[in-house]
Design a protein that fits this description.
Layout lengths: L1 E9 L5 E5 L8 E3 L5 E9 L6 E6 L11 E4 L4 H6 L8
Antiparallel strand pairs: 1-2, 1-6, 2-5, 3-4, 4-5
């Protein structure tokens, strides 16, 4: 697992805001240190060095997540190659 960052706040629309150490891909699953699914990435914004990541929580009461570390699965090179594009050469 790779550490994504620390949950800083909750936004008005219910998303969880994380100060990230890197920019994750949209739709990527996010979990806690026990590998429990917390939600998925819906938006990445802010400064390039430490962007904010908005996560749509899987469970409604997300207030208890503030101040906790969140993680992502590390992607293998094969999985990265698979996501490069959907076009076929004809």
């Amino acid at each position: 697992m790779k550490r994504l960052g620390i949950v800083e706040n909750l936004s008005y629309d219910g998303t969880v805001l994380v100060r990230s150490e890197f920019a994750p891909p949209l739709g990527a699953p996010v979990m806690d240190k026990r590998e429990k699914h917390l939600g998925s990435v819906v938006k990445v914004f802010g400064p390039v060095q430490q962007p904010f990541t908005a996560i749509r929580p899987a469970q409604a009461p997300a207030l208890g997540l503030v101040g906790t570390d969140v993680y992502m699965q590390e992607r293998t090179p094969h999985a990265q190659q698979k996501d490069r594009g959907n076009r076929r050469s004809h």
